[in-house]
Design a protein that fits this description.
The structure is a single chain. With 114 residues, the protein is mainly beta. 0% of the residues lie in helices and 50% in strands. The protein has no helices and ten strands. The strands form two sheets. Strands 2-10-9-4-5-6 form a six-stranded mixed beta sheet, with no helix packed on it. The protein has a four-stranded antiparallel beta sheet with strand order 1-3-8-7, with no helix packed on it. The protein is globular, with a radius of gyration of 13 Å. The termini are far apart.
Length: 114
């Protein structure tokens, strides 16, 4: 059974940084593709990043240059390093295996204040 657990969210001021974690079980990130989504209050879910490998990771335009995905295969954990955070980055962040929304975990809340 595929399970994902997101963590690392919190409250920061604009310009700050956070690192989100996504720990998987029932599969390995090394053999899979993945995605990060976020959902802001009242908004539809937005695809933030997707990739099949670190060298083949894509980001939505609004986070390019500020967000970076990395993997620790020894822990089967994916990270989303977020820097220079903006208020519009506020939302619940989810990781998924492939683009399978149903595989997401409980999400982790990110609040960015001005």
């Amino acid at each position: 059974e595929v399970q994902l657990v997101e963590s690392g969210g919190g409250s920061v001021q604009a310009g700050g940084s956070l690192r989100l974690s996504c720990t998987g079980s029932g599969f390995t990130f090394d053999d899979s593709d993945w995605a990060w989504y976020r959902q802001a209050p009242g908004n539809e879910c937005e695809l933030v990043s997707r990739g099949t490998s670190i060298s083949n990771t894509r980001y939505t335009d609004s986070v390019k240059g500020r967000f970076t995905v990395s993997l620790d295969n020894t822990k089967n954990t994916m990270y989303l390093q977020m820097s220079d955070l903006k208020t519009e980055d506020t939302g619940v962040y989810y990781c998924t295996r492939s683009l399978d929304w149903s595989s997401r975990g409980q999400g982790t809340q990110v609040n960015v204040s001005s």
